[in-house]
Design brief:
Oligomer: single chain
Helix content: 55-70%
Distance between the termini: 13 Å
Shape: globular
Order of helices and strands: HHHHHHHHHHHHHHHHHHHHHHHH
Length: 568
């Protein structure tokens, strides 16, 4: 738990255990109900029943069990889940596991499907390249780079407005609207007729898709504990890679439509995938409840998806894990003052720096995968199918990395494995003349490079953990993604036409950025360890009375509180 629980036995608990006074009804009523054994042993996400009895109490100790400090963590009066908040609520592991599985099925699955839909419309440009898109549109490689740069710039520009809208209107309203809107733009690419229309569509698509990912992260944080979120974000990004696999298979069929109605295959690809995405967007209005206690509706049933007991478990397990989740209503807008406080939160800046550069070593080669495979001599349909193996391996590696990060708690070290994996393959591409090597060997080396275990789920979960307020979590996720998109802009301009086909200058730059990333991970780890030591020293120097006074006076807020520890 990131929030330190003051070690204090309250008078109520002492009275309840006083054998001389006897078990009076008043003392029994005031006594704190028994808690579950703290989860001291780390578990993998699939190990749920090996170390405890399913009928044991699962409720974990929290600040709400100490009457001296509990009032300082009380949720706000208009919190949407307040009617289910009960610090005395207790439940078993069996009940908690059943509830989490239900959340996975009802909430996580559809969120991943929505991401799959967005990725279909975001990534189908890569499939269109294999169907002579650039030649049909009279575009050059540099025009393609410009399109990717404009997309990244507009995606970046759309992050904050979309995230602020989602926080104000609610993710359940804005995300489905967003999907429908960008599906219209995606489908309209059927009618592209030249460079200007190509660039305009890339800009509109990015503006409407911007903010989608941090909105989903914020939405999932309403339902999951911090240690559960990293694994779920792994499944979330699995939806993206599954979309890339499905897109490659679907493209294999749709691109065969070249000549139907006298149109190119890539035009049908944009149109049909846009219609699929639009359908998912409309269904999302039905499939996204506002929050854990707000699932009842005409489309989800009068009683909703969860019973009153399940809602009590959901709400209390979440807020006991992170009391800051009760500090804002799920439709409460972020004011300019709160926005500024979040923007100037220096404790999240190391993660923004990582977001800028960590993915560059694979993003440039990924953007050019289709063109590289065509230059190696693979035909249109082989190229699309050969993009599938690395995606399958990437999903496996990403989930393994997310699991390892949660098992060890070493977020910086685990996320840096991505860089270490990439290094030998980038060196190979830098020193070997791939035009003379076996095309299958070159495909294998590029595929292994792109299959690197993505640290994105770990880092996004890291942002969520270290925010400790809803407003910082919302703004921080958007800012992180903005830095990521800035990295995409950099990536889109590393491989240049005058460096083709070996891109030796570009690969040298990628190796240099990778080396920088390893230094940044070490610095981020060192910074958070130092910050925690300083807080620990100040906190432990206080008496219990000073700690209670400190909490009551709200001297610090969010992740600046001395009782909060930053993950590293």
């Amino acid at each position: 738990m990131a929030t330190v629980i003051p070690e204090q036995k309250s008078e109520k608990l002492i009275l309840a255990e006083d054998a001389e006074l006897g078990p009076s009804e008043e003392r029994i009523a005031d006594a704190i109900p028994p808690l579950g054994k703290p989860e001291s042993q780390k578990k993998l996400w699939f190990q749920r029943s090996k170390h405890y009895n399913l009928d044991d109490i699962a409720t974990q100790p929290s600040v709400y069990d100490n009457p001296d400090v509990a009032p300082q963590y009380q949720p706000r009066d208009d919190w949407e889940n307040l009617h289910r908040f009960d610090p005395r609520a207790r439940w078993t592991w069996r009940e908690e596991i059943d509830v989490v599985r239900k959340i996975d099925w009802r909430i996580m699955t559809w969120t991943a499907i929505m991401f799959t839909a967005m990725e279909l419309d975001r990534a189908n440009l890569a499939q269109s390249l294999t169907d002579n898109f650039l030649d049909d549109m009279s575009l050059t490689t540099n025009d393609y780079n410009l399109g990717n740069t404009i997309y990244a710039l507009c995606f970046l520009a759309g992050e904050f407005p979309a995230q602020l809208l989602a926080k104000w209107l609610g993710p359940d309203r804005w995300i489905p609207s967003q999907i429908v809107l960008f599906s219209v733009v995606s489908a309209s690419q059927f009618a592209l007729n030249g460079r200007p229309s190509f660039l305009v569509c890339r800009a509109l698509l990015a503006l409407l898709q911007g903010g989608f990912i941090p909105e989903c992260v914020l939405y999932l944080s309403y339902f999951y504990k911090h240690h559960e979120l990293t694994i779920r974000l792994g499944f979330f990004w699995t939806g993206m890679f599954l979309a890339d696999i499905v897109a490659a298979i679907v493209a294999f069929g749709l691109l065969h439509m070249r000549g139907v109605e006298g149109r190119s295959g890539w035009r049908w690809l944009f149109l049909i995938e846009g219609l699929i995405t639009g359908t998912i967007g409309l269904l999302s209005f039905v499939m996204m409840p506002p929050g854990p206690t707000q699932t009842a509706s005409w489309s989800r049933g009068k009683e909703g998806w969860f019973t009153a007991r399940e809602e009590t478990i959901m709400v209390n397990r979440i807020i006991r894990d992170d009391p800051s989740k009760g500090t804002m209503h799920n439709r409460q807008p972020i004011t300019p003052k709160l926005l500024w406080k979040s923007l100037t939160d220096v404790d999240l800046w190391p993660l923004y720096a990582l977001g800028l550069t960590f993915n560059i070593p694979t993003f440039s080669p990924q953007q050019y995968l289709s063109l590289s495979l065509r230059e190696l001599g693979f035909d249109t349909f082989q190229t699309n199918l050969l993009s599938i193996p690395y995606l399958v391996l990437k999903i496996i590696n990403m989930m393994a990395l997310a699991t390892l990060a949660e098992y060890t708690g070493q977020l910086a070290a685990c996320a840096s494995i991505f860089q270490i994996w990439c290094l030998p393959f980038l060196i190979y591409l830098r020193v070997v003349d791939t035009t003379k090597a076996s095309k299958w060997l070159t495909w294998g080396m590029i595929s292994l490079l792109l299959a690197a275990p993505l640290g994105h789920p770990v880092q996004v979960g890291w942002i969520s953990r270290n925010s400790n307020t809803v407003r910082s979590r919302a703004v921080g996720a958007a800012l992180y993604n903005m830095f990521l998109q800035a990295g995409v802009i950099i990536s889109s301009n590393i491989y240049r036409a005058d460096d083709a086909p070996l891109y030796r200058r570009g690969n040298s730059i990628l190796i240099g950025i990778l080396s920088l990333n390893l230094v940044l991970y070490v610095l981020a780890k060192a910074y958070y360890v130092w910050r925690n030591k300083v807080r620990e020293r100040k906190w432990n120097a206080m008496t219990l009375e000073e700690k209670v006074l400190y909490l009551a006076d709200y001297q610090d807020a969010g992740n600046k509180r001395l009782d909060f520890r930053l993950a590293s």
